Hints:
The structure holds 2 protein chains of 2 kinds. Chain A is α/β, with parallel strands linked by helices.
Amino acid sequence: MSILKINNLHKNYGSEEVLKGINLKINKGEIVSIIGSSGSGKSTLLRCINYLEMPTYGDILFRGENMFISQKQIQALRTKVTMVFQSFNLFDNFNVLENLMLSPRKVLKISKDLLKEKALNTLDLVGMKDFYLKYPKHLSGGQKQRVAIARALMMDPEVILFDEPTSALDPEMVGEVLDTMKTLASTGITMLIVTHEMSFAKELSDRVIFMNEGIVYEEGTPDQVFLNSKLPRTKEFLKRVTH
Amino acid sequence: MNKVLKKIFTFAIVFGIIITLIPKGNAEDLVNQETTDPIIQEAVENVRFYSSFNYQTLTTDKLNKLTTDFYLPTSYEDIQITYIVDSLYLELSQIPETISIRVGTDFQTIEVLKVTVIDLPNVLKGEQLFNIYATYSYDTTSYTHAYQGYITPVIPNDFLGGSLYTLVRYGKMFLEGAGLTIGISLVGTIIGFILSLFLATAKLITITPQDRKMSKAVKIFFNKLSSTYITVFRGTPMIVQASFFWYGFGLFGNALLCGLFVVSLNTAAYIAEIIRGAVGAIDKGQTEAGLSVGLNYSQTMLFIVFPQAIKNSMPAIGNEFVINIKDTAVLSVIGIFELFNQTKKITSLHYRQLEAYAIVALIYLVLTYSTTSALKLVEKKMGMKPLELTSSN
């Protein structure tokens, strides 16, 4: 059974239609990359999935269930489907450890001592254990993003949404974040990644989705999309980004 | 320029401390032996001293603030009175003269001895105690009665002397006023800050599509209430608010509490807008990150957005405190003796407006400048951008 199912999803900003009927199925443990040019609706799709943007029309089913019913259910969904942002969005008023512990403590009501151990283990996974008392302003972009990934992991999510996780980084810091994501991929968690890192998408993904003007234009294995695409828009896009 | 200003302020502060430490003349109360002779008793009760100014009777109160020459009667009916004046500032004439004083509707001529004020103490020395021993005698009986008073410094005519006199003589009144001003401003700003958190929260409420009808109505109600409150309090002068609550309702039955209430309410409206602005300036990503890890909207606001917004508003809130130091002057209108009203009281004592208002302007400047400097220092320590002092509201 698919963990996420999206049926005929539409999103309008005023009269402008950004998503024009998206249909998608994400299976458990799958790593899916979403590529496409700016304004194609990649990020909006991702933000609709955990209701940071409210869909105008259509259903999003998590484990076959529509969660867009009450505020409580939306919150429950967000603990199962967490998000990593382009601009990290660490809580500036908390240190690294507190960033990780805030939500589990307030939402899941887990005791501080239990959480601390878990948080340190999670930080170890992303290679940031030594920085647990630092504040976000003292971290580099790459370090911040690794902490943000650790924070997303703290709720034991089933799906993590990555919204262009390396776009705001200096080139030399992209590597460390991608490495962290590779480590994460090997744990079997479901990942949905909006990215401009084509080689990364090609290497890591089980499936690649190419979006164009608010629709899923093409989808398939990395080889199908990157090497053997027959569709003109895909070929044009890939030609532009790889040269 | 800054250095000169600092020197002036340091001087003013040190001077303020010194004048409060200057000893005031405190008299040991003279205990007169009671006389048993009824005739002398009557004389002691009825003998009066007369001021050279219109031959007014010198009451005890006037003796305690003596500045001019005066006359001592040499007799009362059959009783002869002789005097010894014990003071470096007074001189008793040995040659009797006559003055004409008013008794009822008639004038009466009496024989007196003149006491001349040969010197007035300066203001730094303060008022000086003097004793007059009057010996009442008739036949073989005699009784000595002691009188006591103070020779008081007079305000000099020139500006500098007048200022010094006002500052030293009424320094304590200025300090009391300044203390009250700081107190009201500080407490008012703190209470206002606490109130403002509720106001800002109410004003920031947003309605989500998931809201039921009831909660939607409640949200709209609080939102409108907060907006109206802020508009009304920012749109009316504090002097009107103070008069409205005090003269209109006699709130709390205590002008001071009522004034504090008005300052708090007024400040709350301003700080609410500051905080609302600061919340708006917090990156939207912070809210989204809070929501995306499963916190609800209130938790996100409480734990993430508000703490950051409040920290960023601290310079502006400190600025509100400085503004309050100046603006509490309007509370004089409801009879609170804060700094400005104390000054008005002082001016009425000598009718020397220029000196008193020049001093109070300087005191206000010292208060606001030192508060601003202190706040800047704190902000620098906390790594915030200092805010320049804006104009009064």
